[in-house]
Amino acid sequence: MKNFENHLEDILTHYDVISFDIFDTLIKRIVPKPVDVFSFVEDRFHEKYRDILVNDYKRKRVHAERTARNIAHNEEITLDEIYRRLEPIYGKAVSDKLKLEEINCEKEVCIANPSIITFYKECVQRKKRIYLISDMYLPESAVTDILSNAGIDDYNHLYLSSSILKTKSTGSLFQYVKESEGLDTASWCHLGDNPNSDSKVPEKMGISTYHVTEKKERFSLKSKSHIAPQNNVYNMSLARYAQLGSLMYTDSYEAVGYRLYGPLLFQFIVWLQGEFVGNQINNVLFCARDGYYFQKAYQKLYPDDDTRKSIYFYVSRKSLIYPLLSSILCRGESIDEFFSIMWINILPRKFTVKDLIDKFKFTFSEEDLKPYTTESVLSRDTVLHDCTFKTFFMKLIKKNQKEILKEGEAFRTYIKNLRFEGSKTAIVDLGWHGSTQAVLEKILDKPLWGYYLSFCNDTLHFEHAKGYFANNLQENDSISLISTLLEVVFSAPHGSLRKYQLDIDEVQLICEDYEHISDADKVEKIREGMMQFIDDIHQNKFFRDNQKYLSKETELLSVGLNPSKCFLDLMKEIQFVDDRLKPLLKKNTLFYYSIHPRDFLRDLKESPWKVGFLSYNLGTSRGIASIYIFLKRVKRWLK
After folding, report:
1. What confidence score (pLDDT) does residue 262 get?
2. Residue 59: predicted pLDDT
3. Strand 350-352 relative to strand 377-379: parallel, antiparallel, unpaired?
């Protein structure tokens, strides 16, 4: 028995007749276990026939098949025989409906096996005689449809145990095919996944075989403490679909995008659409830069939704400083309005006067800075109650008032040119506290609906804002530990917006340079894999029809909190943009850190992905996320 991947060309060169097993060879089910299909059957049945209960269907369906096999007179049983065992329980009419649902579900959960479909097509291209041979109770018409849906049509004949009532496992089905087709076993090679019925049995008959094993992933997700989503069979199937699809990639970064980021993006967009429909949203502003791929995915998944206007909205915290100040000045409001909404999101807890001037783009003279200097260190939390500072700050605003008002007008023109429709406008962003929503609501003087991948409503207390994740403290603690993994991929491939500039009636959007230069190819590969997943999942009827059953479980969160060494090695090549560009992971030896503990604490504090930093440098991810979350909560409690 030879390994399939090492002998592809050998098969094509030496054999004219090639037969394939079907299930788990040419075809893969996206369910973790074949019996999980029965969970979908029950859900779909209850959705269609709300007044009929089929309790405990999955267990009874498994038992019915076992009973049918025990009393069978032939080598194989049929789906009809299985359901005859259920008729005394549910009645014939209901059993027939369940049988039809099972066939339909099987058609939807089956996809072409990416590990072998290319080889199958090469066999077709080289005009090999191709036979499909399978031990399967499903009717031939259903299996033919499953194959056709997977793009498998060009074969000489399908031999199915449920039609012929002979099986591969006894050898009688192979013998039947040999006699029916007049095949010479010397020119015949059979491929399948079962060590007995696809290898040992046909080899005893003189048929060459190649054992098809599941293709290994190019990267290992599973650390010793990794826990995959396991509470929701729909989420497990989504993870399985992503895992199978990722096998087609030779580039590990593309595989990461497909396997981890694609499913999360899909789940988030499905949730968003439910919120848009439920709240009758008219306009959706996908905020730059983190909303860039959100909008792209939304447009791919809901291309025919013309009930709301989708806008990629150029905005940044920095670009809103002058428009907000302009709004406050024009209304004659107190500068405290600015401090209450935006101050905490602009500057660090400790900052210099130079930091403030750079952030606000203020022009100034030395006289304007008195009683401070550019090197004066201030506290973000205490200056708000300092009359001297407020006087100083207002002096700088008045000096820069002309530019502030110009940018305010440019912003209002930009908004006007977007031409909102209807009364309800939503913004979509990555997260985390909704400062952009607060500023926009203040400038526009109207409520907005805010939707975030992750959101914690603990600062600004919005009436209309919610997150897919982190609507409670426990979720917030977990998702915050992988926030950089989200930002670095979901962020748009262009620089951050610096300001709005009005040229006559046209608004120019002035952006900073794009930061990802050294790692641009790696980040882009992750994004390409992610968006390919969105393209593929949009074509999958099963997930289109069962979106509502998906929960928030996602492998990206699990992997981000319990990263494997392979995943860490991939992500160490990625840069993260904060106040400057820095590596996502920084590594030093344990010996170095043991004699330089302050360096360790400094590097941990500065690390964009702290769980990754600790896992990478300590050599294990076991328990690190839980310990870190516990310490955060202790610190919060002590405050």
Report:
1. 97
2. 96
3. antiparallel
